[in-house]
Amino acid sequence: MNFHINQNISIHLLKIEGISNSSVLQIGSAGMIKSLSNLYNTGGFTEPAPEVTTPAPIAPLIPPAT
Known about the structure:
- By secondary structure, this protein is mostly loops.
- It contains no helices and no strands.
- Helices cover 0% and strands 0% of the residues.
Protein backbone atom coordinates (compact mmCIF):
# COMPACT_ATOMS: atom_id res chain seq x y z
CA MET A 1 0.00 0.00 0.00
CA ASN A 2 1.42 3.39 -0.96
CA PHE A 3 0.57 6.68 0.70
CA HIS A 4 1.31 10.00 -0.97
CA ILE A 5 1.29 12.86 1.53
CA ASN A 6 1.79 16.52 0.73
CA GLN A 7 2.63 18.74 3.69
CA ASN A 8 3.35 22.36 4.36
CA ILE A 9 4.94 22.82 7.78
CA SER A 10 5.90 26.21 9.24
CA ILE A 11 7.87 26.20 12.48
CA HIS A 12 8.37 29.59 14.06
CA LEU A 13 10.20 28.39 17.18
CA LEU A 14 11.54 24.94 18.05
CA LYS A 15 13.19 24.60 21.44
CA ILE A 16 14.76 21.28 22.36
CA GLU A 17 15.83 20.97 26.01
CA GLY A 18 17.83 17.78 25.60
CA ILE A 19 18.55 14.94 23.24
CA SER A 20 20.20 11.59 23.85
CA ASN A 21 21.74 8.83 21.76
CA SER A 22 18.46 7.09 20.98
CA SER A 23 16.23 10.13 20.53
CA VAL A 24 14.13 10.67 17.42
CA LEU A 25 12.82 14.07 16.39
CA GLN A 26 10.20 13.75 13.69
CA ILE A 27 8.45 16.62 11.98
CA GLY A 28 5.87 15.54 9.45
CA SER A 29 5.45 12.02 8.12
CA ALA A 30 8.16 9.44 7.61
CA GLY A 31 7.73 6.20 5.74
CA MET A 32 10.78 4.64 7.35
CA ILE A 33 13.11 5.75 10.12
CA LYS A 34 16.56 4.21 9.80
CA SER A 35 18.76 4.06 12.88
CA LEU A 36 22.26 5.50 12.76
CA SER A 37 24.89 5.37 15.48
CA ASN A 38 28.27 7.09 15.26
CA LEU A 39 31.05 6.93 17.83
CA TYR A 40 33.65 9.68 17.80
CA ASN A 41 36.76 10.14 19.94
CA THR A 42 36.54 13.92 20.16
CA GLY A 43 38.73 14.05 23.29
CA GLY A 44 41.68 12.36 21.59
CA PHE A 45 41.86 9.61 24.22
CA THR A 46 44.36 6.80 23.56
CA GLU A 47 43.46 4.38 26.40
CA PRO A 48 40.23 2.90 27.72
CA ALA A 49 38.62 4.50 30.76
CA PRO A 50 39.60 2.98 34.13
CA GLU A 51 37.30 0.30 35.56
CA VAL A 52 34.81 1.29 38.25
CA THR A 53 35.72 -0.39 41.54
CA THR A 54 32.61 0.28 43.67
CA PRO A 55 29.21 1.29 42.32
CA ALA A 56 27.80 4.57 43.54
CA PRO A 57 24.80 4.26 45.90
CA ILE A 58 21.48 4.82 44.17
CA ALA A 59 18.73 6.68 46.00
CA PRO A 60 15.27 5.07 45.81
CA LEU A 61 12.96 6.61 43.24
CA ILE A 62 9.87 6.11 45.41
CA PRO A 63 10.02 7.08 49.10
CA PRO A 64 9.12 4.28 51.56
CA ALA A 65 5.54 4.10 52.75
CA THR A 66 4.88 5.40 56.26
